[in-house]
Amino acid sequence: MAGDSKGIWKSVKGIFSHQPPAAEVPRAPRYPNEGPIRFRPGGAGEWYQGVMFNVSQSGIVFRADQIMDVNTPVEMNFVLPIEIAGKDGAVVMCRGEVVRTTMPKTDDNRPLIAATILEYLPGSLWKPAPIPSG
Asked: Domains of the chain, with CATH numbers?
């Protein structure tokens, strides 16, 4: 399994490493992908839990219990959708930066956080638990 995950990382890094300058890049397609995510600001020791809503090659939107300031570095673990990874269940670890925090206009007052993905990191031992229903 470890060798398999290295192959996934090489392909993910290859997909995302050869991009033209930002002015020439159309917005990456977003894939709805509700599932668990764990994240932590700037390499902090404690991981926080959240719920991912969608992901693209360059970013992710998720709901969390804590607000994070724009420009905060963040590390994230989540499962890539098959449309990006090419196979089901590919867990990624990456570094990014918070670009937006929005308080939703719903009964659930947890903020929505949008973060860029700046770097994919090899391997992850994290196995996400299913999201509790309710």
From this structure: 2-19+27-121 (2.40.10.220)
Per the DSSP assignment, residues forming a β-bridge with 55 are 31, 60
- Separation CA 114–CA 74 (nearest Å): 11
pLDDT digits (tens, 9 = 90+) for 55-67: 887 899 999 988 8
| Dist. CA 21–CA 92, nearest whole Å | 24
> Dihedral through CA 82, CA 84, CA 5, CA 126, nearest 10?
-80
The pTM score is 0.70
